[in-house]
Amino acid sequence: MSESVDTYHPGLEGVIAGETAICCVDQGRLLYRGYDIADLARHASFEECAFLLLHGELPTTEQLALFKQQIDGERELPGAVVDVLRAIPRQAPMMDVLRTGVSLCGNFSSAKSQGRSSLLTRAVRVLAAVPSLIAARLRVLDGKWPLEPKPGLSHAGQFIYMAFGREPTELEERVLNLTLVLYAEHEFNASTFAARVCTSTLSGLHSSVVAAIGTLKGPLHGGANEAALSLIEKFQSSAEARRWVEEALAHKQKIMGFGHRVYRNGDHRAFILEPYVDELARMRNEQWRAEVYHAIKETVWAKKQIHPNVDYPCGLVYHFLGFPSDIFTPLFVMARVAGWCAHIIEQHVNNRLIRPRSRYTGAPARAFVPLTER
Ligand code: CMC
């Protein structure tokens, strides 16, 4: 074993920390199991993508029908979980509620075996539980009882139905499905890496997903979609937005929804989603908000040459769809849980404990001073 700890990359930037066959992220491409994100975004449902990520191949018609049936069979939450959703204080952030909810669901899904098929079963359970948890919490906050899932709806449609008590419009379902496809997977991002670290100790699938949810919550990661919308909402006009952003950048302030550790020429997912900002703004008669969106983007580009990432258009798209901002990052979870579970399984079946080294910067070795002499 090498003792060398000389190579240090803050934030692990540029470090290859493992191998994966699930996703390829680079300047020119974003591939899920070899399929280009643009093709998946145009043609695939979230369920097809989740199957692809978990199983390695796109499903046949029969496989997809069975997969959807399995997810539908796991949507209903245990009564004890609903009781806890009711007991959590109102002001708790939805991401914290979701973290607790997934953790709690894990106790109803305990299985000794950690083999591939058992992990796949638990992956389906957690995929099904996440939208049910978000929807149930929204209902509970509204003083209502959670709705039973309606069999036959798509994953996106089911969420809208369970959360808002009505069937989705075609547009809502299509756009939510698109964001779920775009968010489903992204290689060794911080939350996926957290899930893989947890998995590498041979902890269970639910523990790994809980670690990932906690990691995704932060505004430098998934929390940026909510933060990006609150930035856009600050301004009534483009001129106001430009002034504020110039000032913020001059003070080295970060603009949420911009920049990326890997992408230097822009985020493929943001390019795919952006046309919906203008389309939905027109439909909602909120063009001025789209103008603020573009003004911020142009100013960040002019001053720093930094592109938006997927969270920038996504925050506004979710706002136009009428979703409360507290569920933006939970919707990211609803998608990314597919990628996390694929990584958890990949890590598990070819495991080596993830345990890097650190460079010590503390005090030199020194003599212990007894308490009475300090
Ligand atoms: N606003 C202003 N300046 C920025 C931004 C930003 N959003 N992002 C990077 N920079 C600047 C940064 O100040 C630095 O400038 P300088 O060299 O003059 O000091 C330079 O670009 C390099 O930035 P960095 O922070 O060292 O880059 P990083 O690779 O560590 O950061 C990042 C990546 C995503 C954490 C960062 O771009 C950021 O904080 N963005 C805002 C939060 C955000 O939108 N996160 C969502 C990421 S994509 C979705 C996801 O995977 O969750």
Write down the secondary-structure element order. Answer: EEEHHHHHHHHHHHHHHHH
Largest sheet: 3 strands, antiparallel
Amino-to-carboxy terminus distance: 40 Å
CATH level-3 fold name of the largest domain: Citrate Synthase, domain 1
Features:
3 strands, mainly alpha, three-stranded antiparallel sheet, 2 domains, 16 helices, binds carboxymethyl coenzyme *A, Cytochrome p450-Terp, domain 2, Citrate Synthase, domain 1, 374 residues, single chain
Describe this structure in words.
- This protein has 374 residues and is mainly α.
- The chain has 2 domains: 221 residues, Citrate Synthase, domain 1 (Orthogonal Bundle); 97 residues, Cytochrome p450-Terp, domain 2, CATH 1.10.230.10.
- It has a 3-stranded antiparallel sheet with strand order 1-2-3.
- Carboxymethyl coenzyme *A binds next to loops.
State the gist of this model.
The protein has helices at residues 37-43, 46-55, 61-72, 79-87, 94-107, 116-141, 155-164, 170-183, 190-200, 205-216, 224-233, 238-250, 268-284, 287-304, 311-320, 328-349; strands spanning 23-25, 30-32, 35-36.
Which secondary structure elements does this structure contain, and how are they paired or packed?
Blueprint: E1 23-25, E2 30-32, E3 35-36, H1 37-43, H2 46-55, H3 61-72, H4 79-87, H5 94-107, H6 116-141, H7 155-164, H8 170-183, H9 190-200, H10 205-216, H11 224-233, H12 238-250, H13 268-284, H14 287-304, H15 311-320, H16 328-349
Antiparallel strand pairs: 1-2, 2-3
Bound molecules: carboxymethyl coenzyme *A.
Carboxymethyl coenzyme *A is lined by residues 11, 186, 189, 220-222, 224, 252, 254-261, 304, 306, 309-311.
